[in-house]
Every structure is written in structure tokens, then in C-alpha cells.
Design brief:
With about 240 residues, this protein is mainly alpha-helical. The protein has helices spanning about 70-85, 95-140, 140-150, 155-185, 200-225, 230-235; strands spanning about 5-10, 15-25. α3 packs across α6 (about 230-235).
Length: about 240
């Protein structure tokens, strides 16, 4: 059974204008027309031939779904159809991909800058962790040399240094996650299709930070495990 709905349009010049009762012939999903950040609002699609009040718009957008024809053939067909309606109508054609790229240009620029800033921060964090670990290992050269002289395997020295450094890495990641989850609500309006606490994004960032941190800790530990205990002990006596 067909259902009908009574509609009223609001205009700045004439106030509320009764459109009348319309028959619902189908239901479509929500659609966003201007910006990916705007909220989808209730929308009704009505054939132009059925409009019962004057048009207040100076331009229209026509979306054409491509078929087996080439873009040039579709363009000629649409231009011919528009000219047949009214030769005085002016029309411009733009591929949807170009329109989408223009709308997303600023967002993509911000995303690239954020990616560059994140990569730079990750690099600086890795360098800083490597420097701290290298300094701690240099201060403990005598201790590590004694361990090696008493029969400790080089792998044991590496595990000792990496295990102690892992506490520092874990503490930093925990604090970073807490701060990011707290501050994420302030940038939620800049995100599209993802939430600040998205499990995939948070998990990927955590694994990446942990991996880079462990590599930065492993390098000085590996170098310390290859030192000659006798040479180190002679230098300290």
C-alpha cells in the first residue's frame, strides 16, 4: 500500500509554503552533499516536473552515473539534453573524482602534515631512547664486563638491558595512551570515518612505538654484549 506525506517548505521571502501531499515511492539512505563533516539531515527527492511552487535556486547539480560510454560521450549526451530543454542554460561539467579531490584537498593536506609530524616525533623519540639507553649501558660497562667475565652469555646481557629498558618503554606508552585518549575528544571534529579511540589505530600505534623502542634499546645492548671483558676491566683499574 502506498503511503503519503504532507510537506511544507520554509522560505525567507514567503514564509511557509504548503507543498501538499506526496506519495512515497522509495526510501534511500542518508546522504551528505557539502562536506564530509556535516551531519546527514532528513532529505526528500522530488522530480522537478512535480514541483508545485516556484524555484528559488539559481543553479542545479546533476549527477550522472556512468555507463558503458566514455566520459566524453556522456558529456556530449548531457550537454545535448540540457540544450534541448533551454538553449540559454549555461552548464559546466566536472568529474565526480575531481570534485571529491577538491573537497578533500584541505583534509588531505592536514593528514599529510600530521603524518609528517608523527613520523618526526617517532624518530626523535627513538633517537632519545637510544641515547638514554646508550648512556646507561656506558655507565654500566664495568658491571656488564664482570657479568661476561663470570660466564654470562652475551644474550643474557642483551636480555638484561632490554628488559630494564622495556619498563621505560611501557611506562611511556601507557602515559601516551592515557593522554591521547583524553585529548582525542578535542580533535574528534577533525576526524572522518574513525574515532579517536579506534582499536585498530591505537593498537597499530602501540605496536609501532613498542617495536621502535625495543630496536632502540637492543642496539646499545648488542654492542655492549660484544665488548671484551678483559679490556674493559683493564681500563677501569
Amino acid at each position: 500500500m502506498n503511503r503519503t506525506v504532507s510537506l511544507t517548505a520554509h522560505t525567507n521571502d514567503s514564509g511557509d509554503v504548503a507543498i501538499g501531499r506526496k506519495t512515497i515511492v522509495g526510501v534511500v539512505g542518508d546522504s551528505i552533499h557539502t562536506s564530509i563533516r556535516e551531519t546527514a539531515i532528513p532529505t526528500m527527492y522530488q522530480p522537478l516536473a512535480q514541483r508545485e511552487f516556484p524555484l528559488y535556486y539559481q543553479f542545479f547539480f546533476l549527477a550522472v552515473r556512468p555507463t558503458a560510454q566514455t566520459p566524453a560521450q556522456i558529456l556530449n549526451s548531457v550537454r545535448a539534453a540540457v540544450t534541448a530543454i533551454d538553449p540559454n542554460l549555461k552548464s559546466t561539467f566536472r568529474p565526480m573524482s575531481e570534485r571529491v579531490n577538491a573537497v578533500l584537498a584541505q583534509d588531505r593536506l592536514v593528514a599529510r602534515l600530521s603524518l609528517f609530524g608523527g613520523a618526526l616525533a617517532l624518530l626523535l623519540a627513538a633517537i632519545g631512547l637510544y641515547g638514554v639507553t646508550a648512556y646507561v649501558v656506558a655507565c654500566r660497562r664495568s658491571e656488564l664486563a664482570v657479568r661476561l667475565a663470570l660466564g654470562s652469555a652475551p644474550a643474557g646481557v642483551i636480555r638484561l638491558v632490554v628488559w630494564e629498558t622495556s619498563w621505560l618503554i611501557g611506562t611511556g606508552i601507557a602515559l601516551g595512551l592515557a593522554i591521547s585518549l583524553w585529548s582525542g575528544r578535542f580533535i574528534s571534529s577533525l576526524l572522518y570515518g574513525v574515532t579517536p579511540a579506534d582499536p585498530l589505530v591505537v593498537g597499530t600505534a602501540t605496536v609501532m612505538l613498542a617495536t621502535v623502542g625495543m630496536i632502540a634499546a637492543w642496539l646499545p645492548a648488542h654492542r655492549a654484549s660484544r665488548t671484551d671483558p678483559a679490556m674493559v676491566l683493564r681500563e677501569t683499574t
